[in-house]
Design goal:
405 residues; mainly alpha; Growth Hormone, Chain: A; 15 helices; disordered C terminus
Length: 405
């Protein structure tokens, strides 16, 4: 009995076990990225356009980011499992209440506000706790956890489409809510900080930490923040509208688009550990520039459409899904590298508000373009121009001494 207890305790206190728990939790949370599948059915059932149907998704992302910001300064003061359980219940309740929604405005409250707050509470814990378990390769560790969020649509997009085809929109919401009601609290109970002595050792031995008591006054913060806003604007714009764009602009069948989005999810997931590791190896500046260059190439492919519709859709959009994953791994890793380690939860909560602004800009902008039947150039030429500007600004102004390995 003592041997079994010791074995279970060893697993419980293993840092990779915590990574696995975070990965599974993020697969559940990442179901929000399958909203583009739901939005097609929402538009059909409620007889609304792309802009209105995107509001629950936009609201969810905004409250998810807002909750990260408001709770950031308090997350380190409470047991991680306690906060995760509360967030998990809100996520589940949001899905379940959405099954009773009879209008888009009710969905904005249930799917957008309730679930968004829950996602923000749960999401913040692994991002803050996982780096405490690792002295080196923090970007890789966080990226692996975040891969669950990006990989989620690989599982949930086909499942969502299958559920919609067989049981309809309301019951699809209900099924996801019930599953998450059991799964997420169980994971939350097992998630925890490393022992206090390990936390002290990791902080004392961290050579990359640079003291900054008020990051909002620093040039590095505003450079990271502006880059993060553009990156998430582009990524969330693409993710939220991928199904509609695939059907309306590329004339693809909805079921083909659903399975293509599953592939996109793999790209999104891969981007998180890759660019988290690149931030560890290359530093923040070079990683940001690389992401912008890939974004520009992808946008040009989407505009020029050099291949047949399906290939152009896949080749153009999959790197943009990957880049959103890259930004979401780079932001916490860069926050660790650039600013005071002891204020990490507060600092990252502030940086992450850029995600909320990205959601608002990206979803509203893409919705208006699609509803107006304008060409995709109106979506992606601004992305190219701003990316080029940020490459030059970042290369000139982001301080090298704070980002070298």
């Amino acid at each position: 009995m003592n041997k079994n207890f010791h074995f279970l305790t060893k697993i419980y206190n293993n840092r990779w076990f915590q990574v696995v728990l975070g990965f599974i939790a993020f697969i559940s949370l990442g179901t929000v990225y399958s909203y583009s599948i739901l939005s097609v059915e929402i538009q059909r059932e409620l007889q609304i356009g792309s802009t209105l149907s995107g509001l629950p998704y936009l609201t969810s992302l905004f409250f998810y980011a807002l909750t990260m910001f408001l709770s950031g300064r308090y997350l380190s003061k409470y047991k991680p499992s306690r906060i995760m359980v509360i967030g998990s219940l809100l996520v589940s309740i949001g899905w379940i209440l959405s099954s009773f929604a009879s209008s888009i405005y009710i969905l904005i409250i249930t799917y957008g506000i309730v679930m968004g707050i829950g996602v923000g509470l749960v999401y913040g814990i692994p991002i803050i706790v996982i780096p405490k378990w690792f002295q080196k390769h923090k970007g890789l560790a966080v990226g692996l956890v975040l891969a669950g969020f990006g990989l989620s649509p690989l599982l949930t997009s086909p499942i969502t489409q299958l559920a919609l085809d067989n049981v309809g929109l309301s019951r699809t919401f209900l099924i996801f809510g019930i599953v998450f009601m059991f799964l997420l609290p169980l994971i939350s109970i097992l998630f925890h900080n490393p022992p206090e002595n390990e936390i002290s050792d990791l902080i004392n031995n961290d050579k990359q930490t640079v003291s900054s008591t008020n990051i909002i006054k620093t040039k590095n913060f505003w450079l990271l923040y502006s880059n993060f806003i553009l990156g998430t604007t582009t990524g969330l714009m693409v993710i939220g509208a991928s199904s509609v764009i695939g059907v309306n602009y590329y004339q693809l069948e909805i079921h083909v688009v659903a399975y293509t989005i599953a592939f996109f999810a793999v790209m999104n997931a891969i981007g998180r550990p890759i660019f988290g590791s690149l931030n560890d190896i290359l530093g923040t500046k070079k990683t940001i520039i690389l992401i912008h260059l890939i974004t520009i190439i992808s946008a040009l492919i989407i505009i020029l459409k050099p291949f047949n519709p399906f290939i152009s859709f896949v080749v153009g959009f999959s790197p943009l899904w990957m880049m959103l994953g890259g930004w979401l791994a780079l932001a916490p890793a860069a926050t660790h590298a650039l600013f005071d380690e002891s204020n990490y939860s507060k600092n990252y909560g502030l940086v992450f508000t850029g995600y909320g602004f990205g959601a608002i800009i990206g979803v509203v902008f893409s919705g208006r373009i699609i509803d107006s039947n304008l060409s995709l150039e109106f979506l992606f030429i601004p992305v190219i121009i701003i990316s080029i500007l940020l490459i030059f600004i970042t290369s000139l102004l982001l301080k090298k001494k704070l980002i070298s390995k």
